[in-house]
From TrEMBL:
Its main location: membrane. Homodimer; disulfide-linked. The lineage of its organism: Eukaryota, Metazoa, Chordata, Craniata, Vertebrata. This is Dipeptidase. Keywords: Dipeptidase, Disulfide bond, Glycoprotein, GPI-anchor, Hydrolase, Lipoprotein, Membrane, Metal-binding, Metalloprotease, Protease, Transmembrane, Transmembrane helix, Zinc. Its cofactor is Zn(2+). Belongs to the metallo-dependent hydrolases superfamily. Peptidase M19 family. It is a lipid-anchor; GPI-anchor. It is an enzyme of class 3 (hydrolase). Its EC number is 3.4.13.19. It catalyses: an L-aminoacyl-L-amino acid + H2O = 2 an L-alpha-amino acid. The chain crosses the membrane at residues 28-45.
Amino acid sequence: MQDCENMQQPGDAHHRMLIYKEASIRGAWIWWFICTLLSLLHGVISETSRALDIMTKYPLIDGHNDLAVPLRRHHKNKLSKLSMLDIPNAATDIRRLTAGHVGGQVFAAYVLCTAQDKDAVRLTLEQIDVIRRMCTENPQMELVTTAEGMGNSTKIACLISIEGGHSIDSSLPALRMFYLLGVRSMALTHNCNTPWAETSSSLYSDYQQRNDSLTDFGKAVVSEMNRLGMLVDLSHSSWETAKAVLKHSTAPVIFSHSSAYAICENTRNVPDDILLLLKKNGGLIMVNFYSSFVACSSDANVSILADHFDHIKQVIGAESIGIGADYDGAHGFPKGLEDVSKYPVLIEELISRNWTEEELAGVLRLNFLKVFRKVEKVRDDMLHILPSEVEISLSEVNENCRAKLVPPGKPSLSVLEVHQSSRGNGNTPLRPVKALICFILLLITVTLN
Ligand SMILES: *[C@@H]1O[C@H](CO)[C@@H](O)[C@H](O)[C@H]1NC(C)=O
Ligand SMILES: *[C@@H]1O[C@H](CO)[C@@H](O)[C@H](O)[C@H]1NC(C)=O
Ligand SMILES: *[C@@H]1O[C@H](CO)[C@@H](O)[C@H](O)[C@H]1NC(C)=O
Ligand SMILES: *[C@@H]1O[C@H](CO)[C@@H](O)[C@H](O)[C@H]1NC(C)=O
Ligand SMILES: [Zn+2]
């Protein structure tokens, strides 16, 4: 912008100024105006191109995307009838992920809390199936299960997560089978308590908690996730549960899609004292873009979103921050950030706030990879430990929709019967009325979804 500086001081035209004084002053002002405009524009353009440069070098790994929800809701998981390049009624598709410089995405297999104690496990399997199909049937995507696979992928790397502990139906064997299917992260709760961990939400009233919000079985779940090498995700957990997990976990944990409580006082966000515990744990908070969590209103913009990044950086440092925008998991995103193609807008804003390339490289992907690698390291250090055989006690779960494993007719002394008899109340066979109620609830759930 060398020319502009000269224009602002038209000194070489001094003699002409005497004659054309009025006109020159007016001219100078016009030039000044144009130059200011140009340099502002230049700043914006250079920030845009710097953001794109940095994102090309460090493609984003986002911690939470709910595309599988509209795939079920609007398309019944029928991928053969869809092009992943352009998906109607969704904020995510391959075209927009590419435009947004997304190099890795954690896709959530989420099922409604109303499926808890009903068909949550089947529905979760179906959501895992649709994510696996999406990521293996499209040449632009790649299903990964390791930090190395994610870090080295030249495609859109897909990692599968489960959103809500209700998906494992209080069963460690079910958790392990999900791991075998490629699941590498699980949020302990969604908007409902599980029998062993507590949610930040008051939407549902099932399973009021005891024992500092992480029961003995809850601790067993966290330990087993540590042993398997699965990321423990505390987004949606209550603060008490989060603190108990931060105390218990031997591996770093993540908040896959939560923002800063100091900027927006929503219980889904993370308060400073927990941020400090998270830093001590070596974990990561991946900032959520949903307007209600960013601005505590439906009216948010990139500026207030960037305030969350600045705040968390100030409290625990940029190396503890990632991005988990929550696209397709919520309705209402900040102006200019409506879908997955818009991430560069945030990076521009952070550049204008003097975030360095190193800090941004971390936020975009390196911080997540570091935590994932550490979780794998903790797993490798525990290779000698056998799978946990801890079971939740039947008094802690809702037995209504659990089959009693007793053959029809006269009950025989099966292993399970002995186990139940020893508790003193396990001999009632599943009554027809109960079975009918369960069947109707099942039908309602399937219809609602
Ligand atoms: C990519 O793969 C190489 C060789 O297998 C490995 O050394 C490197 O750490 C990997 N990169 C990432 C980011 O994981
Ligand atoms: C609650 O904590 C106590 C003491 O640590 C323990 O004996 C009990 O088994 C725990 N209950 C559950 C449900 O975890
Ligand atoms: C963003 O929103 C805040 C209020 O939430 C407002 O003060 C600010 O001016 C807005 N910034 C931009 C760039 O629109
Ligand atoms: C960024 O750095 C420049 C130059 O050091 C400074 O003038 C400006 O105030 C800083 N901006 C912010 C938002 O910190
Ligand atoms: Zn969520």
